[in-house]
Amino acid sequence: MEENTSVIAGRNPVLEAIKKEYLISRILVSSGEKEGSILRILSEAKKRNIPVKQVSSSKLDSIMSSHQGVVAYISPIEFIEVEDILDLAKEKNEPPFIVILDQIEDVHNLGAIARSAEAAGCHGIIIPLHRSAPVTATAVKASAGALLHIKVARVTNLNSTIELLKKEGLWICGTHQNADYEYNKADLKGPLAIVIGSEGEGMSHLVAQNCDFTVNIPLVGSITSLNASCAAAIVIFEALRQRRQGS
């Protein structure tokens, strides 16, 4: 459950929050609710590119006891544009170093990856509008505050964004079990975006196809996979090592 301080519940409060342009990271609507003020909420959310997810009423009950079929998560950060991340790299006279999250839906993983990315000096994180964990107070806590320092862009289409990054000269490195290289044998220097997929499904098919190359982490024990945030940290800091040492 998210902290109640990051949640607004009820039809009128949520609608007013949208109209007053609160930083809303996601809206949850009870499945089947598509009448009256709920329709207005859905319409206003669509205009502002606010992701909406239909969930069971019991799920909403676990968040707020009184919700009228809708709750909204208020984002503690302001999202920026992908171009702002690229501009930051230019200002620092550094090759862009970006992390893209594909289907990471757990707020703790989001926070932990953001913590690693910020500590490694990444210029920003890119998350999709849909099928992504919301940036909430819990995510900020899991990031040890890193989400308050690193730039985060939220985009409607990851594949279009990847194409934009390629045009800007970035190499797109995906993470996949059946990869082209082991993570420490790939060239991770220069302009780079590292794509981290979900633990269960990995990267989506189209995103994987759009990667220039993929890397994996060799595992020799009985467990055949790592937590997404753990895998992300290993690859991110290998890229940092190469960038610092020029190896």
Overview of this protein structure:
This protein is an alpha/beta fold. The chain folds into two domains: 4-74, 2-Layer Sandwich (60s Ribosomal Protein L30, Chain: A); 82-245, Alpha/beta knot. The protein contains nine helices and eleven strands. The chain has helices spanning 11-19, 37-47, 57-63, 82-91, 107-119, 137-142, 158-167, 205-210, 228-245; strands spanning 7-9, 24-30, 52-55, 70-74, 97-102, 124-128, 151-155, 171-175, 181-182, 192-197, 213-216. The protein has a seven-stranded parallel β-sheet with strand order 7-6-5-10-8-11-9, sandwiched between helices. The chain has a four-stranded mixed β-sheet with strand order 1-4-2-3. Strand 5, helix 5 and strand 6 form a beta-alpha-beta unit. Helix 1 (11-19) runs parallel beside helix 2 and helix 5 packs parallel to helix 9. It is globular, with a radius of gyration of 19 Å. It starts with 6 loop residues before the first strand and ends with a helix.
Task: Give the structure's gist in a few sentences.
With 247 residues, the protein is of the alpha/beta class. Helices cover 36% and strands 21% of the residues.
